[in-house]
Design a protein that fits this description.
Blueprint: E1 6-12, E2 15-25, E3 30-38, E4 41-49, H1 57-79, H2 88-111
Antiparallel strand pairs: 1-2, 2-3, 3-4
Length: about 110
């Protein structure tokens, strides 16, 4: 993780949502991903790739702005009822992708 992310609980229309935005990837190929959870299930994912590297303070600052803006935008869309929830099939795929990512991270961590 290149930068600390954001985690917010948002109550809207009587439903508690958890919005999580974080950086992933490497300095050479970073990206920002936002996940929206309801009762532990991922109902939405937004991934924004950064074109190029983040290898100096200026680029890191711009990357942080992307992280902050994306997190805020997802919350705005959630509260304005414009967030496009993933279908049940898409939710399963997102959750499988996230589980694979976690497993790969744990494997790499165990090897070090």
């Amino acid at each position: 993780m290149l930068l600390p992310g954001h985690n917010d609980n948002v109550k809207y229309n009587g439903v508690l949502y958890h919005v999580q935005t974080e950086t992933r990837g490497t300095e050479e190929a970073p990206y920002v991903v936002s996940l929206v959870f309801v009762e532990g299930r991922i109902i939405y994912r937004r991934k924004t790739e950064w074109l190029g590297a983040v290898d100096n303070k200026s680029e890191l600052g711009q990357f942080k702005e992307l992280l902050d803006e994306q997190h805020a935008d997802v919350i705005i869309e959630l509260k304005s009822d414009t967030l496009q929830r993933a279908s049940a099939d898409e939710q399963e795929k997102i959750e499988m992708d996230e589980k694979k990512l976690i497993a790969r991270f744990l494997d790499e961590w165990a090897d070090n």
